Each structure stands twice: as C-alpha cells, then as structure tokens.
Amino acid sequence: MREIKLVEVRSELAAGTRGASMGIDALKVASLDKKSSFFTQFEPINVPDANNYLWRDNEFPNAKHIDGVYQVLNNVFNTVELLRLDGKFPIVLAGDHSTAAGTIMGIKAAHPEKRLGVIWIDAHADLHTPYTTPSGNMHGMPLAMVSRIDNLDSKLNEPSEKTIDYWNRIKSIGGDFPKISPKDIVFISVRDTEEPENYLIEKYGIKNFETKEVREKGVSKIAEEALQHLKSCDQIYISFDVDSIDSNISKGTGTPVENGLTVDEAISLNAELIKDKRVCCWEIVEVNPTLDSENAMAEIAFDVLETTTNSLVENF
Ligand SMILES: NC(=[NH2+])NCCC[C@H](N)C(=O)O
Ligand SMILES: [Mn+2]
C-alpha cells in the first residue's frame, strides 16, 4: 500500500495570466459539488508560494520574477525530498507548471542513484530557457531547469547578469548535476512548441506521442509504449498539465491549445500510467478558474485527479 501525501503549491508566479494559484481551491470546490470525500482522505501539506512578488515591478523580462520562482522551487524541492525520503507517494496539486522542476529535484535528491524518467502530458514542451523564451514566463522552462540546459545554440534573448545568476542557482537546486536526461522524457500530446524547443526535441530525440497517435492506437497501447520507452529508468514522475486537454474543453487554463486530448483519454491515460510500480509521484497543474465559467476545468481536472488516485490505490 502506498502512503499518499497531497502537496499543495499555490504558485502562479511563473504563468503569463493571473489566477492559477486558485486552481487548487477550485479543485476542492469541484470535489464538494460532486459530493466526493477525496479531500478528507489525505492530509495535505501546503508549500509556501511567493505570489506577493506579483505586486512588485518585474526586473527580469526574460525570466519574470525569477527571484521569487527560485524561492518557490526551493520550497517544493525541500518538501518533496523529505516526503520521498519518508517513502511517501506525493500527489502534487500545483498552479503554474514551473514548480514541477522543484518536484523533480526533490525526487532526485531523495534517491540520487535511481535513474528518473518523466512522462510529460502537456500541450507544451516547457523546454525554454531565459535565452530562448518568447514570453519570459517561467512555466515554459521547468524541463530545461532539471536537465540543466541553456540551449545557447538557439539563443534569441540577452538575459541580464542577475537573471543568469538566478538561472544558474535554479539549475543547481538539489546539486550541480542534471536531475534527468532529456532522453528520459516522454511527451504526450505536445503540440505547441517554438523553434528553440524543436531544436532540443530533435537533438535529444525526445519522444512525443501526438494526439492523433493516442487516438489511433488507443490509450492502453500508448501507456504501454511510453512506459516501455522508459524501460531503463528506475523511477518515473508523471506531470499532467490540464492544457493537454483540447481547448474546446479546457478554457480554464492560461495557455489553451487546439487538437488536444479528450477528457476520457486524459482520465484513462493517467489511470493506466500510474499502475506502473516505478511511478513515484504524480502532479496536476495549471487549472485557472478565473478564466473559466462554472468551474468547468476544475471539475474535469478533479475527475482526472480522483480516478488516477483510485487507480493508484487499487493497484498497490
Ligand atoms: N506550462 C505552460 N502552460 N507552458 C506554456 C508555455 C508557452 C510558451 N512556450 C512560452 O514559453 O511562453
Ligand atoms: Mn506545461
């Protein structure tokens, strides 16, 4: 039996629109409306955010509020490391996707000898760096942080010295080494990338299961192939960004993209993947109820959360 711990990270500092910090509470409202006892079953830990930085002027155009993001990542890192050392299975409910880097750093720090694979279910590759970002929004950068990639080959921006200093500090949280190899990332439904990200995907041969392939082969087959792709990894982290779901449905998120997964595909995919015994942490991010109507996104996201957790509980 896995001992599940809910981790709540109400950060929205690294998103381009305001409101993702309210995603966790929107999930709770959805749970109450659906009369589910989910949130009474697990004890949550609250990780301190740095959303107060949003009131300040931003001094880092190529990595907005990187000083605050650095703090939050450290907080997430410390929490997840301790939970993993204690043998807990963290289910992380987070706002903007940048904090997934802190989660990965924590998992790695607890078991540095174990090769860590990542299944990234998302519309975006989140492989940018301050040198390549089109927006300066750091939720587009977590996978570069943990792979310790600068991608100077695709350099478009001139980040300030202070930005680079913080960026280097972020890449060193949990140690001066890459926490994952980019080859050990599997993308599912990634469909909105920029050129610098395409360069890295090509360079490292990062596998992406496109939405079309998910539909043609079916979810079970994709889950099997994704896990098979990570056969050399000892542990696996799954990151579920709700914008992986099609923009027709996922309006309550900061960066919706068409041609995404259906709700059923998202639910069964996560429920299937989490059955693998190597999976040691699951995360859901980017619900933003302020962009939504009638809390629709959170209701869907809650179904994904509940079904995935049930699958985890039933299969251990
Ligand atoms: N986690 C996310 N929603 N990421 C969106 C990133 C979008 C775009 N690639 C950017 O860097 O701005
Ligand atoms: Mn994302």
Automatic annotation (TrEMBL):
GO terms for molecular function: arginase activity. It is an enzyme of class 3 (hydrolase). Pathway: Nitrogen metabolism; urea cycle; L-ornithine and urea from L-arginine: step 1/1. Binds 2 manganese ions per subunit. It comes from the Bacteria. InterPro entries: Arginase (IPR014033), Ureohydrolase (IPR006035), Ureohydrolase_dom_sf (IPR023696). It catalyses: L-arginine + H2O = urea + L-ornithine. Its cofactor is Mn(2+). Its EC number is 3.5.3.1. Keywords: Arginine metabolism, Hydrolase, Manganese, Metal-binding. Belongs to the arginase family. This is Arginase. It comes from Algoriphagus sediminis. The gene is rocF.
